[in-house]
Specification:
Layout lengths: L9 E6 L4 E4 L2 E3 L6 H12 L3 E6 L11 E4 L3 H11 L4 E4 L6 E3 L19 E3 L3 H6 L8 E8 L3 H12 L3 E6 L11 E2 L1 E5 L2 E4 L3 E2 H17 L1
Parallel strand pairs: 1-4, 1-6, 4-5, 6-9, 9-10
Antiparallel strand pairs: 2-3, 7-8, 10-12, 11-14, 12-13
Helix pairs in contact: 1-5
Bound molecules: cytidine-5'-monophosphate (C5P).
């Protein structure tokens, strides 16, 4: 049995995109592969943590050695997260859809001559903010991600405050970086102590470095 610094610690990780149905055969999605989330879950398991892995329909292989909870929509993800609490730390990697179609059709929407479907949207719950701002039973450490294309550090720093999480892992997902869907990541870790840019490295290496930081923070 592996003894690690996170032995006996229960940690939640969310990962992947969410799918928001339009009708039974169509949905709105995003380009998150789930690679970084799977890597983080695996790195935490390696350090001995009991990981609850809540994932949307991601392409990435599911991490081994976790308690796996598969969901489809943002609302399902929130319920799964709430059902997994309490945890000592929570890492929110999922690319949760900001909006859902407010009245998804129960039957396939037909193509009708000259007519175009009109969709109304509703705002999805912000899972990270909800957990960060829990009046009772909040995890000791809450980590969010901020995928930005502009003013990355400035936006991510504001996001940390707005959501109420402890750390934000910020990254630039502009298409030119090749990060979204790629194997590498270049992140900046933002906490109340300031920001720390990590060199560009494999997503697995980012995951291992982050898992070590989580272990240090929970020990402190
Ligand atoms: O606001 P934005 O989507 O950029 O925030 C990203 C962070 O918030 C990520 O950690 C993501 O997992 C989390 N998030 C969430 N629920 C949402 C939207 C984002 O948990 N509805």
């Amino acid at each position: 049995l592996s003894e690690g610094p996170l032995q006996g610690r229960r940690i939640l990780v969310t990962s992947g995109p969410t799918h928001e149905p339009i009708d039974p055969v169509r949905y709105i999605a995003n380009r998150s592969s789930g690679a970084q989330g799977s890597a983080i879950a695996e790195a935490l398991v390696k350090l001995g943590a009991d990981v609850v892995f809540v994932t949307g329909p991601a392409d990435a292989a599911r991490p081994e050695g976790v308690t796996l909870v598969e969901v489809e929509t943002a609302q399902e993800m929130l319920r799964a997260v709430q059902g997994s609490l309490p945890v000592e730390a929570a890492v929110f990697c999922a690319a949760v859809a900001d909006w859902r179609v407010s009245s998804a059709s129960d039957s396939k929407i037909k193509k009708t001559k000259g007519g175009l479907p009109v969709m109304a949207f509703a705002e999805n719950p912000d899972i990270l903010a909800t957990v960060s701002q829990m009046p009772e039973g909040r995890p000791a450490l809450v980590v969010g991600f901020a995928a930005e294309t502009d003013d990355v550090i400035e936006n991510a720093t504001a996001k940390r405050i707005r959501k109420g999480c402890d750390w934000i892992v910020a990254n630039d997902v502009s298409p030119a970086t090749g990060i979204m869907g790629g194997t590498e990541n270049a992140v900046t870790l933002i906490s109340d102590a300031g920001s720390e840019a990590w060199e560009r490295m494999d997503k697995v290496a980012v995951a291992e470095k982050l898992a070590e930081r989580v272990a240090e923070a929970l020990e402190a």
